[in-house]
């Protein structure tokens, strides 16, 4: 019997199945995004009432794992001026108990306590939607004197400001990276956000991952360290590296259900950050070889059992199906993960108070309300937006590398822009503006938005700031309406919606870019938080907004560009519930 040359080969079959899987994943992600939009007539599905008896514990612990206390650095130590780190980083410090303590203290630790009535709760350096903190952190580190005589994996416990040692590993693994390098792993507990926000929680968890990436990057910069997401690694590698394989596989139900489901409290590994001396100019990563070494972590002696966070749960199955669809595979490529450091634009350095990096990042607060009266001058406005730029190529090249802090930690070209509602900026007409953070998208944005938009540079705008005036007018009521009728969107100096280059990015790169687009908005949001505090005002993220009405205001149709996160910046109403800035009272804390 003759064999036809048209027969399908195993390779072709694998390729066909892979394409089908990719299309299925993309369909799931697009469906999730569409069905978790808020609209004027209905909100995304979520709990009708909050089950306070089952509010998730905000602190994960690994019971019986060895606990290593970290140090509490004083505010008076050698922290550089906040404005200086955008120009150049200090000399790298060696890895030690002191510097590791400082990194966590300035990035993911508790920062204050609040109290009202009989309730008391903590705040953290890294912001979180609803202060629910789904993000957990791990360190994969070489031996450190007085901490461990072997390389170790540890979970960071923010309440105690301590490390819970999960496992030790043989020397050699970190030889893939330069001397004085280590890894930080980030994961998400979806249940913490879903308890309050229902199906939209997957979005908010990934905002928080972005905030955490930026928080770690900025804290590391104060120590002379650089940070890069090792984005060639896939979900399975991240799971092994952080010891999260120990969680039982969660069987996703066919519909939302309620009951006792401790397995729903598993941690979803998001990313691993390489932290390394800023003096290193080149790091070549062979992800295939690195993956083989990580596979050995499955055989380590992992210590500690995760604590239970709630007695009863609600499973919003849509979240977990989408998380499955957005899992990233291992990317087999070799290449440098280091980009040259590029200073951010400086236009009005006098706008900044003389605050140290530590003062800014630890005293940052999410504004509860804006006062509706504070104004800022346009020079300060322009300076804040300059630090919102990823920097890099703006000469028409295909790639716009993210070289400036903290965007340089990300491993992809900038995909997120900002539509701004200007309310109280002295010297700038009120109205709608647009910050183009990747000028390769400028032509598409002009073509896809309303024909009547002007797209002109405002008066006095720096040449290297691609900010455009679209239309003049009082946007206060409009911005409030679009942000779920929240006064905070109209009572500040300006508010904004972060507009992502959406479906084309997912189709060209994969459905795993979906959470990463939210990470980028979180990094951008963290810059807005820090910049606001550094100039003497405040900011807050707004996760509740009416998605498609935002697109309608801009004239956007389809899914080419989508709004993913809103923010507001202005003069805060003082929150009298702050009990203490001394999150960890002791002789080293002078707050």
From TrEMBL:
SUPFAM superfamilies with a match to the protein in the record: FMN-dependent nitroreductase-like
Residue ranges of the region described as Disordered: 1-26
Feature: compositional bias, Polar residues: 1-11
InterPro entries linked to this entry: Nitroreductase (IPR029479), Nitroreductase-like (IPR000415)
Pfam families: Nitroreductase
Entry GO MF terms: oxidoreductase activity
Domain Nitroreductase: 92-245
CDD domains: McbC_SagB-like_oxidoreductase
Domain of life: Eukaryota
Protein name according to UniProt: Nitroreductase domain-containing protein
């Amino acid at each position: 019997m003759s064999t036809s040359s048209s027969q399908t080969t195993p390779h072709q079959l694998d390729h066909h199945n892979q394409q089908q899987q990719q299309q299925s994943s993309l369909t799931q992600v697009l469906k999730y995004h569409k069905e978790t939009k808020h609209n004027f007539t209905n909100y995304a599905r979520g709990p009708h009432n909050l089950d306070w008896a089952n509010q998730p514990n905000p602190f994960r612990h690994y019971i019986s794992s060895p606990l290593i206390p970290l140090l509490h650095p004083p505010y008076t130590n050698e922290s550089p001026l906040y404005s200086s780190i955008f120009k150049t980083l200090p000399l790298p410090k060696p890895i030690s108990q002191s510097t590791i303590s400082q990194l966590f203290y300035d990035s993911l630790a508790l920062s204050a306590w609040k109290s009202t009535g009989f309730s008391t709760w903590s705040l953290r350096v890294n912001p979180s939607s609803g202060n629910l903190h789904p993000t957990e952190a791990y360190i994969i580190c070489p031996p450190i004197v007085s901490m461990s005589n072997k390389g170790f994996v540890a979970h960071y416990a923010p309440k105690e400001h301590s490390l819970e040692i999960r496992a030790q590993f043989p020397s050699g693994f970190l030889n893939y990276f330069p001397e004085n390098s280590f890894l930080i792993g980030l994961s998400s507990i979806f249940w913490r956000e879903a308890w309050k926000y229902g199906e939209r929680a997957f979005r908010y968890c990934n905002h928080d991952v972005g905030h955490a990436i930026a928080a770690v990057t900025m804290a590391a910069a104060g120590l002379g360290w650089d940070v890069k997401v090792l984005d060639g690694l896939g979900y399975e590698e991240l799971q092994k590296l952080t010891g999260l394989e120990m969680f039982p596989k969660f069987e996703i139900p066919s519909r939302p259900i309620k009951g006792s489901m401790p397995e729903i409290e598993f941690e979803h590994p998001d990313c691993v950050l390489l932290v390394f001396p800023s003096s290193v100019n080149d790091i070549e990563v062979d992800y295939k070889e690195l993956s083989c070494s990580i596979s050995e972590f499955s055989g380590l002696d992992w210590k500690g059992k995760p604590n239970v966070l709630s007695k009863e749960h609600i499973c919003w199955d849509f979240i977990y199906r989408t998380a499955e669809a957005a899992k990233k595979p291992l990317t087999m490529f070799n290449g440098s993960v280091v980009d040259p450091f590029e200073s951010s634009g400086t236009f009005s350095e006098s706008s900044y108070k003389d605050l140290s990096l530590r003062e800014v990042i630890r005293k940052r607060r999410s504004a509860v309300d804006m006062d509706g009266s504070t104004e800022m001058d346009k020079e300060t406005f322009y300076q804040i937006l300059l630090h919102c730029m990823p920097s890099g190529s703006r000469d028409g090249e295909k790639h716009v590398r993210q070289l400036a802090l903290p965007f340089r930690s990300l491993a992809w070209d900038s995909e997120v822009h900002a539509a701004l509602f200007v309310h109280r900026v002295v010297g700038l007409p009120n109205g709608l503006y647009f910050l183009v953070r990747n000028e390769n998208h400028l032509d598409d944005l002009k073509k896809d938005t309303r024909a009547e938009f002007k797209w002109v540079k405002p008066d006095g705008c720096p040449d290297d700031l691609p900010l455009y005036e679209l239309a003049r007018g009082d946007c206060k009521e409009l911005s409030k309406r679009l942000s779920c009728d929240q006064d905070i969107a109209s009572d500040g100096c300006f508010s904004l919606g972060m507009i992502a280059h959406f479906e084309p990015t997912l189709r060209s790169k994969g459905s795993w870019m979906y959470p990463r687009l939210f990470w980028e908005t979180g990094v951008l949001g963290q810059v807005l938080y820090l910049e606001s505090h550094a100039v003497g005002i405040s900011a807050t993220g707004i996760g509740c907004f009416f998605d498609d009405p935002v697109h309608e205001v801009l004239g956007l149709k389809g899914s080419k560009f989508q709004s993913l996160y809103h923010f507001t910046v202005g003069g805060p109403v003082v929150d009298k519930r702050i009990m203490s800035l001394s999150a960890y009272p002791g002789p080293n804390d002078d707050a």
